Amino acid sequence: MSKVVLMKCADYDPEEIREKIEHALRILKVDFADKKKILLKPNLLMRKKPEDAVTTHPTVVQAMIEILKGFSVEAVVAESPGGPYTKRRLEGIYEATGIKGICDNTGAFLNYDTSWFEKNFEEGYMLKKIPFISPLKDCDGLISLAKLKTHGMAVYTGAVKNLYGLIPGGQKVELHFKMQQMDRFMDMLLDIYLASRPMLSVIDGIVAMEGSGPSAGVPRKLGVLIVSQDGIAADFVASKIIGLNINDFPLLKCAIKRGLFREDGVEVVGDRLEEINVKDFKFPKKKDVLFLKGLLPVWLENYFKAWLTPKPVFIHKKCIGCKECFNTCPAKAIMMVNKRPVVDLDKCIRCYCCHELCPEKAINIDRAFIFKTILK
């Protein structure tokens, strides 16, 4: 039975958050006695302020650092954000998200080492060898500090998806290109989760993100913290809070298929789900045409899928010419023309990384007429 601690938390008061997480650790009977150094992995997707709800709030990271200090455990904070994995990029993101200030104040080690190693994982479905950032190898424990958000491709991102940030930047690009199908990508995320073995998952849902996540959505106050030793179960509870059906949750569907999750194997303790559930949480519009699958000859299915699958559209009036989309496109499908991006849809793999990482929300995902009218 996987126990998930669900707690109301009104705002980002450092003392309250620390007390809540300590309470959860007592319920879960988490013991750090045999640990010397633990890696804290927040979601630091891009250079955004904490109030934008794109990244894990720094007070959640601070609380975990202080709790570990109480056990005489060294905290290491690390992330491989979207885009290139460079020291300069890390410096900008750590500063903007408030993580550098927290680490400076608490004495936690903030990682700038961009080296990586490869871990053998024979039981993986998609990955038998997984590239991980070096701090994972140097620590004897891992804690996922996720943000509760919608996601353009994965629908939802939380404890498990957060661990994709353990993959160094260049390798992320390669994996996106190799795992274009939804189920393959979700199985890859589960491989990463199983291989990295987080001992604890904390989901920051105090202020979540709804709509066009994971970066262009709207902050939504939910007032909740979720803590569990089972990251998949934690994500399931988060999905229940926001009203996400299992059939619309690709990661959970893959986890069930692999025997990694059972709904009747989850025990929710703490506050009651019924007191926290929201009825009108906004999700990204669907980005696939699964209704075609198996109903047409493959060549015709591929033709219609190429026509109907949503595509990125660049709003040049909003664009500042930063080239973030150009630099991070896994398929190299974007060109810069007169300092503005233009996409080659024949090369585009519909990973929507450009939409995810645009700092100005200058990219929309355009759906075919049938989606706009019939499949809302």
Please describe what this structure looks like.
It is a single chain. A hairpin with a 3-residue loop joins strand 7 and strand 8. The chain has two domains: 2-275, Rossmann fold; 290-373, Alpha-Beta Plaits, CATH 3.30.70. It has helices at residues 14-28, 58-70, 87-96, 99-106, 134-138, 169-178, 182-196, 231-241, 250-257, 298-308, 324-328, 353-357, 369-373, and strands at residues 2-8, 37-42, 74-77, 109-110, 116-120, 129-133, 142-151, 155-157, 200-210, 218-228, 266-270, 311-314, 334-337, 340-343, 363-366. It has 13 helices and 15 strands. The protein is globular and about 55 Å long. The two termini are 37 Å apart. Ferredoxins are iron-sulfur proteins that transfer electrons in a wide variety of metabolic reactions. It comes from Biomaibacter acetigenes.
Summarize the structure.
Residues 310-338, 339-368 form the 4Fe-4S ferredoxin-type domain. The chain is of the alpha/beta class.
**How is the main sheet built?**
9 strands, mixed
At the fourth level of CATH, the homologous superfamily of the largest domain is LarA, N-terminal domain
Distance between the termini: 37 Å
Residue ranges: pLDDT <50 for 5 or more in a row? Answer: 287-295, 369-376
Overall geometric form: globular
CATH class membership of the largest domain: Alpha Beta
Which range does the strand content fall in? 15-25%
Number of DSSP strand runs: 15
Domain 4Fe-4S ferredoxin-type: 310-338, 339-368
Protein name: Ferredoxin
Organism: Biomaibacter acetigenes
Keywords: 4Fe-4S, Iron, Iron-sulfur, Metal-binding
